[in-house]
Structures are given as C-alpha cells and as structure tokens.
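Subject: sequence -> structure tokens, single chain

Hey, anyone have a minute? Need the predicted structure for the following. Not urgent.
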Amino acid sequence: MAFSLYTAVFLSIVIAVFFMVRKEARPLVLLLSSISYIYHLNERAVVVLLVTTAIVYAFGLLIQFFKDKNRNRVAGACLFACLFLLVFSLSFLKFSSRIPRFSNLIIPIGFSYYAFQAIGYIVDIYNGKIRAEKNIMFFALYMSFFPKFVSGPIEREEDFVAQVKELKSVRFLDEQRMSEAFGYILYGYFLKLVVADNLGALVTKLFNGYRDSGSLWLMLGSLSYTMQIYCDFAGYSALAVGVSRIFGINLVQNFTAPYLAVNISDFWRRWHRSLSMWLRDYVYIPLGGNRRGVLRQCINVSIVFILCGIWHGNGLNFLVWGMLHGIYSVIDVLIRRKKNSDKDKSILSVVKGRIITFCCVSFAWIFFGASGLKTAIEYCIAMFTAGNAGTTFIAQYNELCKETARTNFLLVFILIVILMDVISYKKNKPFPVVLQDYACGVRYLIYYLIIIAIIVFGLYGPGYSASNFMYMNF
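Reply:
Had a minute. Here:
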C-alpha cells in the first residue's frame, strides 16, 4: 500500500465501517473495499480479477463434484483445463511484450500472485487436501484481499478462509493485536520509505552509469541494490501483515532475516517464504523432490529455480538469475550430502556460511536489477576491472551522493535494519512482535523515533504511488 493521503483516508474509512457494521457483514465490507482499492489502482485489473475468480470458483466446484462421485478422470480433466487456462494466461501476459501484435498488453497488477493462489487452490481440491469453497464471497475475498493483492504474500485458501469465517469474533479494543499491527505498519514504512527509496536513487545512478564508475563503487552499488530490494519487498510485506492484523487476519511472514542465512537453502526458507513454499509444494515435491536420488534432486532443484526466474520476468537476465540460484542450490545439496554440514554449528562455520551466502545472493541480484542480460554482464565485468575509472573515490562520492547528510544517515539506517534482523533472528520472531516484549515506555520511544525518521528522511508525497513497490512488476 502506498504512503499517500488516499491510502490513509481509504484505510481509515474501511476500519471504521468494518467495526461499525453487523459482524456478519464484515467479509462483505472487506470484499467491497478490496474491489474498490484495486479499481483505484487499475480498472483493467478488476475485470481480470473478477473473471479469473469466477472461472476458478466454478472449476473448484466441478472438481469437487466429480471427486465426490469418484469420477477421478473427469476431475483430472477439469483440473488440467483450469491449470491450462491459468498457466497460459500468466505466460501469455508475461511474454506478450515480446510479440509485436500484443506488445501493448501489460500484465494486470497482482495477477502473478493470485494466479499462483488459484493454482494451489484447485490442486489442493484435486488432491483431497481441502474441499471447494461454496461461499463465493469468501473465495472472492481470498483472491482479492487488498493488503496482499499487489505483491502477496501468496496465501493458502484453507488458512485464509478459516480466518475470514471468524471475523465476527474480532474485537476493536484488542490492545495486543492493535499494537502489533501498528508496529508492523511503522516497520514496513521505515524499511520502504527511509531505507529502500533513498537507496534507490544511488542504485539507479550506478546501474545506469556503470561505465563511468569505479570498481569499488560498483561493488557498493551491488550491495546497495541487495539492501534496497530487501527493504522494499520486506517493507511491503510488513505493511500487508500489519494492515491485515487490524482486521484480525494473520498473513504469512514473507521474510525472516534472510541475509543471516547460513546457506542458500536457508536463504530460501527466509526470503519470499510464501513463494518458496508454493514452489516446494506445487513444483518440487510433485517432480519427486529428494526422493529419487541425488541426481534427480539436483535436476528438480534446477527446474524450480528456472521457473522462479521466469516467473519474475521475461528477460534473459531473470532466467540467468534463476539459474544462478539453481547452481548455488545444487552445490549446497552436494556439499551438505557429502559433509553433512547442517550439523556443523561452529562459530567459524556459521560466519563463513553467512558471508559466502550473502556474497552469492548479492552477485545474483545484479542480474535481477539490471535492465537486461548484456547490461548485467557488463556491470559484473566492470565491477572487477574498472579500477578507479580515472577519478578518485571522493570525487565519485561527491557526484553520486550530493546530499551528504542524507547519505550519512542512510548508512546509520542500514545498520539499524541489520540490528533489527539480528534481534529478530535471535528471538526467532518478527521484529514488530519482538517489540511487544519491551516495556511500554521503551516500545513507544522506538515508535516515536521511527515516526521521526519517516517524516524527516522518508520519500513520499506528490508523485509517489504503489507502483513504486519493486515487486509489483513481477
């Protein structure tokens, strides 16, 4: 959700109406609010959403009907038809820009996320894990819930709808829930507006002007993008969790200190967790997982990450990004099978694992953030061969970081984010939840400092919109 006057007014109205209407009407309030919010973002997205919701809802009922009649072949045909429609639509819209006749088509906001939700939903019905939802209002809310619509997390129907059915028991005056929600929202805006958006200005200059920058600055550019994309996406996810918590709905925690991961497998258990779990359950395990030997496991892992790269974008740079993570993961599988390194918990081993993992992830992000494969390759070459680019480090600093005070404070804020993640990692729970363990005075002081940082250093106001969230593009 964007940091704007519209968002503040919209959310205030929705909260007021939600707690004022009859409790039985709360799901309807959230559904109508979600459709209104999506319409405000993009009119075309609403049409695609409603059509997709109606189709998947109907196919879900059909698959359930034929499963109940033990007509598994017909149920399987319905499953295949629905999967084909969803996968074809997602693929066509993602790659239409490469087809001259359809180059003007743009994938609707949120489609990648609710398409994956829909695929998981019908597959779970066919596998007997859940029963088709008969209440179309509940199902439509599952598909369109506005806090998660733009960039996820990718929710499971049984978890989400179960909470929707209990909305009538949600109390407004629940201090613990509201305090957590407020903490998540402040934390999310801090990551996004103060850290990610300020880093974005430096990253854009370095990625666009890499031919004129020295090697050290290009390395700093890679590290800056590594922090930017994390704070941007984790910021959005925290906002989604916080706003949802106001209404009594708990969403998946998408990030759990990913840059403290000890290996690449650990990283993907902590980064974009809802996507990682989706790929595990609906691609990796159906392919055979790790049940058919090391070679087959390595092939399955590679397929998963190639698909992950393609899901994120249609450029070759995204494919290479996915392949790099596939290579990292295959190496990790082989090392852990040979040395059983998961049992090596020495401090040196853990620190070494974290450094190597972070460097590998940061290097791969170059391909993710570059405008194309050629640019990414040239950036990587320059990062190791440009030297000082014919000028001094200070001269480049003055050119790239003209707002010296803001840049200096940004370094402090990055260190604060790292500290938050370390605390979260050690406590094994999200930082906004950790804050609830502190005394009220300490917690409110932290809230106050975060608010001041957002007001003074945050980027917002005219010209700022939800499209500034990086993961909206995927």
